[in-house]
Amino acid sequence: GQPARALEYYTQALDIRKKLAAADPSNAQAQRDLSLSYERLGDVTRQAGQPARALEYYTQCHEIRKKLAAADPSDAQAQRDLSLSYIRLGEVTRQLGQPARALEYYTQALDISKKLAAADPSDAQAQGDLSVSYIKLGDVTLQAGQPARALEYYTQALDIRKKLAAADPSNAQAQTDMVVSLYKLGLTNREMADYRAALMRFKDGLVVLAKLREAGRLQGTFAEWPAIIGNDIATCELLLKLSPGLLEDPAWPLLWGWPRF
């Protein structure tokens, strides 16, 4: 809640870590710590609405992580760090209105995540990272006007998240991650005018949320999701009831006073 103060602390930490890394360039931990400082500065400046400045920090972080990952390809942590830096570069370039560049970064993150997940299929974190890469690719392709391609990515993310949620039913994060995938699929189905599929996705997500709420584990912004998804369900049900002729009329949303979907 105090970005200016956080920026000050992260800058001080950066100054210290720069000196430590310079004192022993061969120390991988010192280099990783330095990359984390750049990453934190990128996070706080991006949240403060300064994406161009954040890009500079993320790029510096990324350059360090590329070297660390190349120095020891068998180091899973170094590879994961590199994947996460690609994700952040993708996020900030999307924010800067460069979706094609973001797509490249997300694809590189996906390549690394696939290898890490394949190396240890039982590693829930690696599987979760892989699902995030698919979600990001879905987001950017949907933004680029390719809903069918986005649907494929979101479906791959959902397949992973279903398994993670089933493996640990008590993990609320795994359950809400699955709901996010279902919701994104529902919105994409709706954009493609597949209202029955959208309705199914929304209802599946609502069932998961209802169970979490009943168990007292639906917290934060997700506490508002049942109402949001409920509205989406009502919209899809109404769309299914409307006659095909009305749906083909480009003016039909205006007749009801609704925005176009």
Labels describing this entry:
elongated, 12 helices, 2 domains, Serine Threonine Protein Phosphatase 5, Tetratricopeptide repeat, mainly alpha, 261 residues, single chain, disordered C terminus
How would you describe what is shown here?
By secondary structure, this protein is an all-alpha fold. Helix content is 80%, strand content 0%. The protein has helices at residues 3-23, 28-47, 51-71, 76-95, 99-119, 124-143, 147-167, 172-191, 195-214, 225-241, 244-248, 252-255. α2 (28-47) runs antiparallel to α3 (51-71) and α8 (172-191) runs antiparallel to α9. The radius of gyration is 21 Å and the shape is elongated.
Question: Radius of gyration, Cα only, in angstroms?
Answer: 21 Å
Can you give the helix content as a percent range?
A: over 70%
Distance between the termini: 34 Å
CATH topology title of the largest domain: Serine Threonine Protein Phosphatase 5, Tetratricopeptide repeat
CATH superfamily of the largest domain: Tetratricopeptide repeat domain
Class computed from helices, strands and strand pairing: mainly alpha
- Run of helices and strands: HHHHHHHHHHHH
Just give the CATH class of the largest domain. Answer: Mainly Alpha
Average per-residue pLDDT, rounded, comes to: 92
Number of domains: 2
CATH architecture of the largest domain: Alpha Horseshoe
Outline type: elongated
Number of strands: 0
Q: Uncertain regions: pLDDT < 50 for 5+ in a row?
A: 254-261
Say what oligomer this is.
Answer: single chain
